[in-house]
């Protein structure tokens, strides 16, 4: 964290609580696009040229080694010669609908993952360009069917915006007004449950317990509830009657769903029928408004499959041999996280293997 912060002042405060862990572990970015500023600072420091509006298309291979990159710039084709090596760090393929359907032979094959399912990464940055180029150059691709789906997608885009599914005191309620899952279950369990609901969607419902002050910054989203409401993706109801009217959920079903949750939160039952247990001090009955709610859908969150590498970030072929001059790091690689990535571990992945790939490429002879 100190190394990243020193390079571009992109980290603001350590150890914010919640999200992906039991203990506080979240470091917030100081502002939007601070990572871009960090890269620009490093480029100036080392006199590097960042080629904007230039899309890499192919790796240049000579005598079995990667020696450069072909690209298409705004003024025509471009070729870049690599004096040391090429590092692929182009991310996953979550937004490439055609490609993800082609490789979707794993646990989501019944869900199809078609164009109705968005991606939590910006679409133009999650097309799998790097791993497709690497395969053409002889790299082996592994674990492509290992796709992580998250239940916190925004309809139409899949981006994970506004109120979050993690944390405490939140309810997953389908369009019939019924809860259908233990909200504290793993992401794949939650997503599978959502796929089984009418329209493959649900309402994420929270109340003042999560947002006692609408002007306070939410640590998970970095925004205030006032801002979320102003932008219209989150709605507010003063009571359950208004919540029912605004969403179309039957009031009797809605009240019964919340009361079932509250019985467990009040420890009147050891667990509800979905397995929810009020084991945390923040688990409290949700009885009063204001109520905050948003429509949510499953979204592609991470693709665990990709380019096969070794511990030195060398790109390997099907025989386990290094393709000389080629390195890879981050979500474009496969096998690092097994079949399902633990929340937050992508950051460790890209920091460890990004640094390893860069160092090894720079020291190559």
How would you sum up this structure, described in words?
This protein is of the alpha+beta class and 365 residues long. It has three domains: 49 residues, no CATH class; 155 residues, 3-Layer(bba) Sandwich (FAD/NAD(P)-binding domain), CATH 3.50.50; 150 residues, Flavocytochrome C3, Chain A, domain 1. Helix content is 25%, strand content 24%. Strands 7, 9, 10, 11, 12 and 13 form a six-stranded mixed beta sheet that branches. A three-stranded antiparallel beta sheet has the order 3-4-5, with helices on one face. Strand 3 and strand 4 form a beta hairpin. The longest helix has 18 residues. The chain is elongated and about 70 Å long. The two termini are 30 Å apart. About 3% of the residues have low confidence.
Helix proportion of residues, in percent? 10-25%
The second-level CATH architecture of the largest domain is 3-Layer(bba) Sandwich
The CATH topology of the largest domain turns out to be FAD/NAD(P)-binding domain
The biggest sheet amounts to: 6 strands, mixed
Gross geometry: elongated
Compute the gyration radius: what is it?
Answer: 23 Å
| Helix-strand sequence | HEEHEEEEHEHEEEHEHEHHEEEEEH
Return the domain count. Answer: 3
The number of E-state strands comes to 17
Which blocks of ≥5 consecutive residues have pLDDT under 50?
13-24
Per-chain topology:
Layout: H1 2-8, E1 11-16, E2 26-29, H2 34-45, E3 55-62, E4 65-73, E5 76-81, E6 86-88, H3 97-103, E7 118-119, H4 129-136, E8 141-142, E9 147-153, E10 171-173, H5 187-195, E11 202-207, H6 225-231, E12 235-237, H7 240-247, H8 251-265, E13 291-303, E14 306-308, E15 314-316, E16 322-328, E17 333-334, H9 345-362
